[in-house]
Specification:
By secondary structure, the protein is mainly β. It has no helices and 26 strands. Strands 1-3-26-25-24 form a 5-stranded antiparallel β-sheet, with no helix packed on it.
């Protein structure tokens, strides 16, 4: 598919969070090893997109007068892409994914703020899973298995546990999904099974250990990015199979979907977050996997701007850790090209 950059201004608004894809060109070498910190860059250039009217919620703030730094962080123990990430207290977890030989992984890596270590192995090897946290429990759901099909299996890692425990499966097998948590519930949104995109999200009640259907998505797609804005669970970008820039939010209080405009640069497999009134969407690739989306898209003060991405890539495991959007692993070229880099991005 074509990786054309759409410089048009956003028709509406959005808050975004992506699950990354590959990046073409300009890739850096993988970080050298566990616990090492690479050169940091704070001088990224900014290119403003056209400003339009917006429907973003009232949490928006003015653009920072100077761009917050992007920086390299200690790299993963080994190269991985299409993994999932989440945080618990002062720990960052990265699970599943592909290795450099395109083998699905059961590995779990844990970062404690200074170094990476290996955590308990997942019960199955899986790529393109989702990860999220309820209280101090880490959940990994869905993904694709080595056989090529999607799975509906769900696993939880409790604090101090030495192994993952299986909980109730989703009602639909899905990979390349968005998994986010609000309160005591998980929301599994989008993704794909062996033959089609999945329109119906599912909601997991941790206390009852049950899944229930939510209202169908207006634009079903996979490789989308999920984020939380108060009671809203939002997804941005993805592929259908065409590359999407749509931003849609599920109001968890009313159970209804709201359209929130579109990204200025459509992308899939990106990383994103909404923090302190600012939306950040980084990297990704078009669905044709012909190039890398090499910019960070930033929304604040009712307009989008773009700036160069420190390490352009897609398919990274991403989560907010210590107030910054961390992106670990991913691919610095379209398709399969796993790296071990971790970078972080601040509002």
């Amino acid at each position: 598919m074509r990786a054309a950059r759409n410089a048009l201004a956003l028709l509406g608004v959005g808050v975004v969070l992506l699950g990354a894809c590959s990046s073409s060109g300009g890739g850096r070498a993988p970080a050298s090893g566990v616990g090492t910190t690479s050169r940091r860059s704070t001088g990224a250039k900014s290119t403003s997109a056209k400003s339009t009217s917006s429907t973003i919620p009232s949490g928006s703030t003015a653009l920072p007068s100077t761009l917050a730094p992007q920086r390299e962080e200690p790299g993963l123990p080994r190269a991985i892409q299409e993994a999932a990430a989440t945080t618990v207290a002062d720990r960052l977890y990265v699970a599943g994914g592909y290795d450099t030989q395109r083998n699905s992984s059961a590995a779990t890596f844990v970062f404690d703020g200074s170094a990476w270590s290996s955590g308990p192995m997942l019960p199955i090897r899986v790529n393109h899973p989702g990860a999220a946290t309820i209280n101090s429990d880490v959940y990994v759901a869905g993904g694709f298995t080595p056989a090529g099909g999607a799975t509906n299996r769900v696993f939880v890692l409790a604090p101090g546990a030495t192994s993952w425990r299986e909980v109730a499966p989703m009602q639909r097998a899905r990979g390349a999904l968005s998994l986010v948590s609000v309160g005591q519930r998980l929301y599994a949104i989008g993704g794909r099974n062996a033959s089609a995109e999945i329109a119906v999200p599912e909601v997991y009640d941790a206390q009852a250990n049950t899944w229930a259907d939510a209202a169908a998505m207006p634009h079903p797609r996979n490789h989308l990015a999920g984020f939380v804005d108060g009671v809203l669970v939002c997804v941005a970008g993805g592929r259908t199979p065409a590359t999407s820039g749509s931003i849609d939010c599920l109001d968890t209080a009313s159970g209804t979907w709201q359209g929130r405009g579109a990204l200025p640069v459509p992308t899939s497999g990106a990383a994103a977050t909404f923090t302190r009134g600012v939306t950040l969407v980084a990297g990704g690739e078009p669905s044709g996997e012909t190039s890398i989306t090499d910019v960070v898209q930033r929304f604040a003060s009712n307009r989008w701007t773009t700036e160069p991405m420190l390490v352009p890539r897609h398919g990274s495991a991403f989560a907010v850790y210590r107030g910054r959007l961390w992106m670990c692993g991913g691919a610095t070229a379209p398709g399969f090209h796993a790296v071990a880099n971790c970078t972080s991005l601040a509002r």
